[in-house]
Amino acid sequence: MADDLDPIFKALSDSTRRQILDYLKGHPRLTGEIVNQFPEMSRFAVMKHVDVLREVGLVVTRTNGRERINSLNAVPIRLIYERWLHPFSDYWATALLGIKQVSETELPTDPTTLKEP
Fold first, then answer.
1. What is the DSSP letter of 2?
2. Which of 69, 60, 72 is nearest to 23 (CA)?
3. Checking DSSP bridges between strand 67-72 and strand 29-30, what pairing results, if any?
4. I want to staple 113 with a disulfide (CB 3.0 to 4.6 A). Which of 24, 74, 101, 108 is the partner?
């Protein structure tokens, strides 16, 4: 059975694509700026990676004249979070609150009042 998130996971499985997304985290970038980040790769190869990211919705591109401005779209990553990580966050938040409460419990300052186990 195919999963709606499969294409996103497949796109994220490539380290170059993850590096492109990291680069776009800061702010939108021109296509040429992305290409310049990977001098060891051809422009065509970098653009294929950007196209894969665009096809799965991780990158949104708008044009301004001849310029193509690429932006990170975090919605697909949020969908992954909601499905795979969020269900566990309640458990860990409760566990951390329990640790906080135990650590903040005052111990008696008089050692004679301490009970032996």
1. -
2. 72
3. antiparallel
4. 108
